Amino acid sequence: MSFIKSFDELPFLVKVLFALPVLNIVWAIYRIIKGACTENYVMLVVGIIWILAGSSICWILDLVFLLLGKDPILTK
């Protein structure tokens, strides 16, 4: 849970950097860990899918949501 809390408290710029195509795997790992810790199986499956699709198209969703001032999609 400390990983989740520390990740939630990251500065905005770092979160945006993690949303870029190559680094988007960090958000996928975050979804997997948070899904496992909270027993949210939908988030867990989305995290696994995000690893595969994150570098091609899903990173755009994360970036847009962050720039709109919201959390990346499916992280709450």
Structure commentary:
The chain has 76 residues and is mostly helical. The chain contains four helices and no strands. The chain has helices at residues 2-8, 12-18, 25-37, 41-67. The longest helix has 27 residues, at 41-67. The two termini are 14 Å apart. The model has no long low-confidence stretch (mean pLDDT 88).
User: Oligomeric form of this entry?
Assistant: single chain
* Uncertain regions spanning at least 5 consecutive residues: none
Query: Percent range for helical residues?
Result: over 70%
Number of domains: 1
Mean pLDDT: 88
Rounded to an integer, what's the Rg over CA atoms? 11 Å
The count of β-strands is 0
**Class by helix and strand content?**
mainly alpha
Strand content: under 5%
Shape: globular
Supply the number of helical segments.
4
The ordered string of helix (H) and strand (E) elements is: HHHH
Distance N terminus to C terminus?
14 Å
Give the biggest sheet. none
